[in-house]
Write a structure and sequence with these properties.
six-stranded parallel sheet; Dihydrodipicolinate Reductase, domain 2; alpha/beta; Rossmann fold; 10 helices
């Protein structure tokens, strides 16, 4: 296990992962063939994966199998397909799913600590991969995923879906890179998203009987959970523990970090960076910062990223905003600035704050 300071640096760097795309089974399928997809982990983001693939039935995409370590979630997922007259395979152990030769690709929406190993195992089993953000739990793991994609000649795609906003955000990126606002001075990413205390407990939380906790931990240490927030000891609050998550920088913030880099045209880790942060405002069992700032010293212009999990004051539930954005990106240029307030639009302003141009539009990223 690495210490907190080192892991903080690694989690920052993991947000700059690069993906390798090869011509493989997805590209080689003939028109009319069925692409069979297995979804691994669907108690959270995996549900949107299933919805996305179901929308592609006419294109020949079929959800063929489901995998989750929580038997209750797995049973509900299978039952939903049964209602629609579709039979799917069901697994609690992803290794058994990967043994199925009929599955062409897997879609991974597990906690972060499983991303790298699940992806590499899938590639070794001959599957292409869609993996949720962040790519991996740390930089080293992400690099092994890239190595595996090259070695096994497999497609690996990630869940930073703002890149699918070709007309919206992509249009703004192109416009700025053409020099319409002059030189970029600073690319700023914001994650001002309220995160309440998960509480504090002195006892070991009880793992639900429906969960195979050994499989849930997987490559992480097999230690009993010391958390018992509103979401229970297993689901979601793992984001705030170093053994499983990367804090909000690797959770919500990864999307805005990706957009901020997109404007700069950067695809790799910055040559120099520093980060400071802490868990402020309350004392609870969680470990990752709810307040953090990261500085990337890119050659073209610096990138500054902020995480704020506390409201603007004790009496308010409202979060801070900067130039109208709370969870978004601000690109400051010589002749004005661009605001990206969501996943599908952007607006440019002159130095006096007058609106110059707007962009809207997004596509499904599956």
């Amino acid at each position: 296990m690495t210490n907190r300071r080192r892991f903080l640096t690694q989690s920052v760097a993991a947000s700059t992962g690069v993906f390798y795309i090869a011509k493989t089974s997805w590209a080689q399928k003939s028109p009319g063939d069925t692409l069979n997809v297995g979804v691994i982990g669907f108690g959270g983001r995996g549900g949107s994966h299933i919805s996305g693939y179901n929308k592609l039935k006419k294109e020949g995409v079929r959800v063929a199998a489901l995998c989750d370590v929580d038997q209750n979630i797995l049973n509900k997922g299978v039952a939903n397909f049964d209602k629609n007259g579709q039979k799917v395979g069901s697994y609690t152990d992803l290794r058994r799913m990967l043994d199925d030769k009929s599955i062409d690709a897997v879609s991974i929406a597990t906690p972060n600590h499983w991303h790298a190993l699940a992806s590499i195992w899938a590639m070794q089993a001959g599957k292409d991969v869609y993996v949720e953000k962040p790519v991996s739990h740390c930089v080293w793991e992400g690099r092994q995923m890239v190595n595996a994609a090259r070695k096994y000649n497999k497609i690996v795609q990630t869940g930073t879906q703002s890149r699918s906003s070709v007309e919206g955000i992509g249009g703004a990126v192109k416009w700025v890179q053409e020099g319409n606002l002059g030189k970029i001075l600073l690319s700023r990413g914001l994650c001002y998203k309220r995160r309440d205390s998960i509480g504090k407990t002195d006892s070991v939380a009880k793992v639900p009987e429906s969960v195979n906790y050994d499989l849930w931990c997987g490559p992480a240490p097999l230690e009993p959970p010391h958390r018992n927030g509103k979401k229970g000891p297993i689901h979601y609050d793992w984001h705030w523990f170093w053994a499983y998550g990367c804090g909000d920088l690797g959770n919500q913030g990864i999307h805005q970090m990706d957009i901020a880099r997109w404007f700069l045209g950067e695809m790799e880790l910055s040559p120099r960076l520093w980060s400071v942060g802490g868990r402020l405002g309350y004392v609870d069992d969680a470990e990752t910062p709810n307040t953090q700032i990261v500085y990337h010293a890119y050659e073209k212009a610096p990138l500054i990223f902020e995480v704020r999990g506390l409201p603007e004051n004790k009496e308010s539930k409202n979060m801070d905003k900067f130039k109208g954005a709370g969870v978004g990106v601000i690109v400051e240029c010589e002749g004005g600035y661009v605001v990206v307030p969501n996943y599908s639009s952007a607006a440019a302003y002159d130095k006096e704050g007058k609106l110059i141009q707007e962009w809207k539009g997004s596509e499904d990223h599956f």
